[in-house]
Amino acid sequence: MIVFLSILFVLICILLIFMVVITPSNEGGMAAAFGGMGSDSFFGTKAHQHISKFTVFLAVSFLILAVVINRLNASRAAEKGRPTPSQQLPPPKAPPPAK
């Protein structure tokens, strides 16, 4: 289960990066930097609406999957009796006495 969710998480990360890069902006974004200002006509006139909705969907999916994978890993570690990373931290050292 965790392997499947991790693979899905990586795919969503890659798609989210791609969607952020192709998102059109008012200044032209990446298309203006490389000389191609015709990106709006390539995807259609209302492409920015669809791109924005899909980007939000990917961002929400990214956050939900991150929380779910974290919870599953923590519960799996607790079942095996291993301490979680927060339990492995050493106690803070006392400051040296003032002179």
List the helices and strands and how they pair.
Layout: H1 2-22, H2 29-33, H3 39-43, H4 47-79
Structural commentary:
By secondary structure, the chain is mainly alpha-helical. It has a domain at 1-22 and 50-80. 65% of the residues lie in helices and 0% in strands. It has 4 helices and no strands. The protein has helices at residues 2-22, 29-33, 39-43, 47-79. Helix 1 (2-22) runs antiparallel to helix 4. The termini are far apart. The model has no long low-confidence stretch (mean pLDDT 80).
| Rounded radius of gyration (Å) | 22 Å
DSSP helical segment count: 4
User: What kind of sheet is the major sheet?
Assistant: none
What is the total tally of β strands? 0
Q: What is the strand content? A: under 5%
Question: Cα distance, first to last residue?
Answer: 57 Å
Overall form: elongated
Mean pLDDT, to the nearest integer, reads 80
Structural class assignment? mainly alpha
| Strand and helix order | HHHH
Low-pLDDT residue intervals, each spanning 5 or more residues: none
Proportion of helical residues: 55-70%
Keywords:
4 helices, 65% helix, elongated
At a glance:
The protein is mainly α. The protein is built from four helices and no strands.
